[in-house]
Structures are given as structure tokens and as C-alpha cells.
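Figure 2 data, in text form.
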Amino acid sequence: MNWQELASQLFPGGHDIQEQDRFLSGTARVGEQTVAVIGTTDHTPIGIEIALAQAQAVLAVVREHPQRPIVILVDTQGQRLRHRDEMLGINSYMAHLGKCIDLARRRGHRVIGLVYDQALSGGFITSGLMADACYALPQATIRVMGLPAMARITKVPEERLVELARDNPVFAPGAHNYLAMGGVEAIWDGDLAAQMEQALAQATPQDRRAELGAQRGGRKWSQQVVQAVLADTHARAA
């Protein structure tokens, strides 16, 4: 689904979203409220220009439209792998984007992410995964690291990782596996406008991903580790 078709289904009340060099920005109507929209299209890699453009757009909303909800439309092949971007500090630009989204949430902006096509590696971590809640369309492709790359990094044979991925969502790509892990709140199908309105109404700054992962069986230990750390912190404080 291209972004124009997506926008018409998400925002039947109207929108003024524009594309410039595969960066999306504008506003839209969701029910009775106006939301800010930022995002990417055409599987664009996130280089320093788009990371900075997204960060600037988020800060502009925080500065000019206090507490206006923000919708992040995600379609990216991940961090741009160029020597120029690495030398200019792409990691810092992407961290800056994540911090800007975190600032918006702390200032009372509800932030919703929607993966409508691809969501890979750092381009996803510092955008959709920084939202109050991230959703996905059924055909979305989501992964942080492909199994061949994971094999090279971990030194675990790829054949073993493929075997593990059959039963463990942590090793497997795809929207349904991220749903099981709690990284994706829900997969949207049908009336996208109604689901967007409901998501904004239910958005909360509380991070429930570990809890959801435990409930859905995709991340069995994360919530237990969180609870153990919190208990230890409270005990030390007492």
C-alpha cells in the first residue's frame, strides 16, 4: 500500500500530508481532532537528513501545538549504510530523533506509530518503537536484524537460528512475531480510520511491551526481569 492510499483510509476527514525526498509531514483529521503526521516512504534508508527532518518536525509540534497527537508512518529499510553518514555521526542523529519523540511524550503528546510497509533496524527503533504504542498492517515486514547478519554477529550458525525462529518470536521477523513479543500493540485490518481513532483514545505513556510479551508468550523473561530490578531498587531505597 502506498502512502497516499494509506492516508485516504486512515484520515477520511482530510489531510494535507506532503512528501519531499521520501519524507512525509503534515496534519490530518482524526475524529474531531487534528493530529500531526510524520514518516517515511519508498523503503527509504534513514540518513542524517531524514533523521534530522523528522526530529525538527516533532520539535515544531511540541513548540507550536502543545499536546497535539503525533502519528508516525513507518516505511524504512533501516539506517543508511554509507561512510559519509557514519563519519557525520548517524548514530547521534538517530538518537536525537528518539529523544525528541520521548520529549513529546513527556510533554503530553500522544504518539502512535504505524508500520505500513517495512520497518528495519535503527530506522524502526528510533521512530515507531519510541511511540506510546506501535501498530502494523498485516503485510508489514518488521525485523531489527536479519538471521544471516545475526549469525555473523553472534557466531551462532544460521541453520541453528532458523531452527530457533520456528518456535521463538525473538529470533523471527514479521509483524505477527512482533505482536507476540509486545513490540506491536495490534495488527490493523479493516476500518483503519476507526482503529486509529481508538488507538489515540487509548494511548498511554506507560510502557507495556514487556507485560504484553509475557501475556502473549513471545517474551517469557523480560517482565520478570523488570519486576526483579524494580523490587531490588525499592529495597535499596528503603
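Caption note: The radius of gyration is 18 Å.
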